[in-house]
Description:
alpha/beta
Amino acid sequence: MIESCAILGHSPNHFYCGWNEESQTCNRIKQMITDNIISLINDGATQFNIVGDPGIGLWSAEILTDIQKTNSNIEINIMEPYQGYTSLWPKMLKERYENLYNTCQNVFYCSGYKTKTALLEAYFTIIDESDIVLVVCEDVSDYIDIVDSAICFAQHSGSPIILIHTDFFEIEKINP
């Protein structure tokens, strides 16, 4: 039975819509995230673990906050890579993220200070503490980034993975 889910994904810089959250592409991505979260809830998931990043983490937490209004059984846990992680974010993103502190159940810190590996360690932690991993990614990438490393970690750990491919809007299941 699925009880907990890690949610992670590439930065919107990777997506065709970029940071344009009003675009049809972005709305479609968010709808696919919502549909998969609801499906996981219907399968028994109540705990959702995210890394507080300004892309998929933030979007997923906002989606979960909306769902939580009608389903009080949902627990949202945010794993920040280190204390002060959001200090250099643009004001708008920082305000959106700070609003989540009022609705999420727990905020954890992977490290008390910034390190080169803190973000990757935060992804590894939420993957280790979850029964399934929901990943939002674009396949076409010119380089391997931290999220790609986290996806590889999840695959090698045998975690069931649901991949939302943003470049062709399909779902792939790995290690079902």
